[in-house]
Write a structure and sequence with these properties.
Length: 554
């Protein structure tokens, strides 16, 4: 397939998406939002030239993975072989209280804008917001995005001319129109890792991806194609091209790994088959012991009890369950290999020492299980299936915390965060201060030597809600947020200082925790402190109203 050249955009047709019925009846096909791969060309020729390092402002490489648990990687207690991430941690800083938004879309919106997600129409990314790409581009940075976007919105889809992309999709939510010089990746949430042109299974909507204004289907990808590799290829090409100039660059890599479908290369899977026969309960205990030994866990941490949506290992199909986790581990392993390629490229172009590298996950481990867990019909690994790890492994991946993706206990919203920047970040350091993904925007703008804009494209911009993390990166203290708040799918949470208020849709009551003594949320104090609960509830609903949530008080 010939990729679209970004210099021709938007005059050339760009990727659109088509949702077909499960039976494949084209007469009932209809256009939907973000089910497409968008390809851009930087250069497909390997660059061997070594370039000089720019002086002054740092380059920024922001790497985010998808649906990975807090304890999955080696430097956070996991079994997966992650030597490159472990190297970044050894040469940089690990955070223990860094928060995301527990969900793919809301996390991406907050990272890009420095704002809490806004709910309701027209979506999380709006014209009165400025993105990292736009703000850093105005500051003289080259900008690139490789990987998952998941922030597209659509308008006039039902009656639009299929040849008119501008009518089909709202350009205010496309990477090319939101500050990125070059983009290659997935506009929607997930796809087949080996063949993104393949139709999704019926239980995932039966969608196919299309290419071109004439709705020409994407029919093939090169032999040996794997999305994690392809996203890295594009990021490498961006770094190599940007390194030729003296201007700094911002490269954002958003891997879909290890989000389902569980697809990994056989040679990577073979490393892990048989390594998870201990089951999820023992895996959590093993990780907990490693976290204590490495000093990650403190006396305020306690290994939490079994999750209400988990099931008994003794009654599970051990071969199937081991394979699910082995493929998941292989996906992280492959991602780490590709992060090694990014580090090598920075070294080859003499950019490594002047680049701030950050790595995190968009939410906690995932408990979703589309299509169920029947070993007779689910096939983890290479192939056509969309198997997932399920609720038991998804919970265990966040050891020692409670819950998982979409829930707002610590297991859903706490992410590993690794930051490396020689000369500014102390090697091998731990940072235990609370921070949030909305803090990236002011942090990066401070490092770029520019201010957050009050206006952009003639429109008044919402004030940034994040706080700069530069003092934290330098090992200093900062005045933190007065409060942090979250919402997703009925789950709610508010943190004020060390106090955290949770509403869990499985528990259906407000819970109160003192994180300074009980980081893993094991002792509910709501019954003993009703006045604090009521005060924090009022603060939560004031925040909810501000961000466009229309929810009733409980």
């Amino acid at each position: 397939m010939r990729p679209v050249n970004s210099k021709d955009f938007p005059m050339d047709p760009i990727v659109a998406a088509k949702s077909l019925s499960a039976t494949g009846d084209r007469s009932r096909a209809r256009w939907v939002i973000v089910l497409a791969l968008l390809f851009t060309v930087v250069s497909f020729c390997p660059v061997q030239v070594v370039f000089g390092a720019p002086a002054g402002r740092p380059n920024i490489l922001l790497i985010m993975c998808d649906d990975m648990g807090f304890s999955d990687i080696g430097c956070y207690g996991g079994e997966v072989q992650t030597p490159n991430l472990d190297r970044l941690a050894a040469e940089g800083m690990r955070f223990t209280q860094f928060y995301n938004n527990a969900k793919c879309t809301t996390t991406r919106a907050s990272i890009l804008t420095g704002l809490y997600p806004r709910f309701g129409k027209p979506g999380h990314l709006r014209s009165n917001m400025v993105t990292l790409g736009e703000a850093l581009k105005q500051a003289g940075y080259h900008t690139s995005l490789s990987g998952k976007w998941h922030l597209m919105t659509q308008r006039n889809a039902k009656n639009s001319d299929p040849g008119s992309w501008v009518e089909r999709f709202d350009k205010t939510t496309h990477p090319f129109f939101r500050g990125f010089d070059t983009y290659y990746g997935l506009l929607d949430g997930c796809c087949n890792f080996f063949n993104p042109a393949q139709r999704d299974p019926a239980y995932k909507g039966g969608n196919v991806r299309a290419f071109g204004a004439d709705d020409k289907p994407v029919t093939e990808f090169p032999e040996g194609y794997y999305t994690t590799d392809a996203f890295t290829d594009h990021a490498i090409e961006s770094i190599q091209r940007f390194a030729k100039d003296n201007d700094p660059f911002f490269v954002h890599v958003t891997y879909t790994a290890p989000h389902y479908p569980l697809h990994a290369k056989p040679e990577d899977v073979s490393k892990y088959v048989g390594k998870f026969r201990m089951g999820w309960e023992q895996m959590r205990r093993n990780r907990w012991e490693r976290q204590k030994k490495m000093g990650l866990a403190t006396d305020a941490w306690t290994l939490t009890e079994t999750d209400s949506r988990s099931y008994e290992w003794e009654r599970a199909d051990h071969v199937f369950e081991d394979l699910r986790m082995a493929v998941y581990a292989a996906m992280i392993d492959a991602m780490d290999q590709n992060i090694g390629r990014l580090i090598a490229t920075l070294e080859e172009t003499r950019q490594l020492e002047n680049t701030l590298i950050l790595f995190l996950s968009d939410n906690g481990g995932c408990s979703e299980e589309p299509g169920g867990r029947d070993p007779a019909v689910r096939t983890p690994g290479p192939g056509n299936d969309y198997a997932a790890v399920g609720s038991a492994w998804g919970w265990a991946q966040n050891a020692p915390f409670r819950r998982y993706k979409s829930w707002l206990h610590e297991g859903g919203i706490t992410t590993p965060l690794i930051a490396r920047w020689p000369g500014r970040i102390k090697a091998g350091s731990l940072n235990r201060a609370p921070a949030h993904i909305i803090d990236f925007m002011p942090t990066f703008l401070e490092l770029a030597g520019t201010d957050y804009p009050e206006e952009y494209n003639g429109e008044r911009i919402l004030p940034c809600e994040g706080l700069s993390m530069v003092p934290l990166l330098e090992g200093k203290k900062r005045s933190g947020h007065d409060q942090l708040a979250w919402f997703w799918s009925g789950n709610r949470a508010l943190r004020q200082g060390d106090w955290k208020l949770d509403w869990d849709t499985l528990v259906k009551k407000w819970e109160l925790y003192d994180l300074s003594k009980d980081r893993c949320e094991t002792v509910d104090l709501a019954g003993k402190m009703p006045e604090r609960v009521e005060s924090m509830k009022r603060a939560y609903f004031e925040w909810a109203d501000k961000v466009g949530l229309r929810i009733e008080e409980d």
